[in-house]
Amino acid sequence: MLEDGFGREVTGVRVSLTDRCNFDCVYCHNEGLGDTRGPLDPQDDELSTDRVVAFLEVCAEYGVEAVKFTGGEPMLRDDLEELVRRTPDAMEVSMTTNGTFLPGRAAGLVDAGLERVNVSQDALDAEDFAALTNSGAYERVLEGVEAALDAGLAPVKLNMVVFEPTAGYVPRMVDHVAENRGLQLQLIEYMPELAGHPEWAIDIQRVHDWLADRADHVETREMHDRKRYFVRSETGEATPGTAMAAADGGVRTDPGASDVGMVEIVDPVGNAEFCANCHRVRLTHDGYLKGCLNRNDDLVDIGETKAQMRAAFEKTVDERVPYYGEYMVEDEDGDWTFNEAYQDSEGDRTPYEYSTDD
Predict the structure, then answer these.
(1) How many domains does the chain have?
(2) Domain membership of residue 185 as a residue range
(3) For residue 255, is it within any domain?
(4) Nearest CA among 354, 343, 62, 27 for reference residue 196
(5) What's the distance, CA 73 to chain centroid?
(6) 356 lies in a domain?
(7) Is the pTM of this model over 0.85?
(8) Of 343, 325, 284, which is closest to residue 15 (Cα–Cα)?
């Protein structure tokens, strides 16, 4: 397993299979590349099936333990089941999706080897959901969550971006996962440095404090030093359903607490501790490795051959630095400023500049 210069082993990769999406979420940053989505038809710059598989086989050589397929919307790839099936056996396979294509495909993905799924769901009201996603697919997303549970993917983790338009929905969403035993909730801090609209950002510590007051207990997850809050439903009632009841044992730390939901906060903004615990690299839909979500000046072309991919992977890990606390440093006023040690001698690097030799 490779380790960067800051002692961080790379244990996971996120692979963006496409920048296409059938939603147009107002907060989207497209895996840090910005709002670059193309039309819904397949594009020539997308990685081929064989190239993705070859890259994953290289990752497995370096002891990478997990891959998460992302997008855009990864289920717009017709070869997704094949990609899951051909992922090396030693790697856990998960996916982040908007859920609209899970009905009809969830069972096949599980048969292929998919083990976990995150579904983006920022509201529990069709009109609010439509305003956030520019999509009228709210009911389809709910069907997708149920299809994932029926296929055995419980717990299904719901992703909710927390910013001004959604902050008021948090209590209801917390109750929702507490009352439905197959669900968990991941609250993701809004990242204005990637998505723009800094006026939408909120103080995520307020959410931490509110959850701490409500939680039965709190755990700290090693990855990113994340906090997990186990929160009891205010109604005191769980709604297991047939599929959700099958999730028992993997969803709750206390099997008797059927009305307790797990809520996790992802809070990277200005968080040096978060960055110090990051163990992932990212592959863009068009074949470039990124050592950090927040940067596009470190992109490395993975090439076509496994030799090139090994060189690209090693280079990316070797040059990887924590974004906050190293690439960005906090000044005496508490502001984060660019660390000149990472300024290229010939000026700022531009995306997609680097390639590797055979």
Answers:
(1) 1
(2) 12-275
(3) yes
(4) 27
(5) 12
(6) no
(7) yes
(8) 284
CB contact at 8 A, 130 and 139 = no
Cis peptide before 155 (omega within 30 of 0): yes
In this structure, is residue 352 part of a structural domain? no
Q: Which amino acid is at 31?
A: E
Cβ-based neighbour number of residue 85 at 10 Å:
16
Instruction: Name the one residue in this structure whose structure tokens are 């790379």.
Output: 10
- Encoded amino acid at 85, one letter: R
Task: State the pLDDT confidence band at 236, using cuts at 50, 70 and 90.
Answer: low
Residues in the chain, overall count = 358
Rounded-to-integer distance, Cα 285 and Cα 150, Å: 30
* CATH number of domain containing 242: 3.20.20.70
Residue 349 lies in a domain: no
Q: What H or E segment, with its residue span, contains residue 231? A: strand 226-232
Residue found by looking up tokens 């300024």 in the block: 343
Say how many CA atoms lie within 13 Å of 168 toward its Cβ: 5
Tokens of 277: 């615990």
3-state helix, strand, coil in the chain (%, to 5): 30, 20, 50
Average confidence (pLDDT) over 71-100? 96
For 42-74, the pLDDT digits (tens) are: 667 899 999 999 999 999 999 999 999 999 999
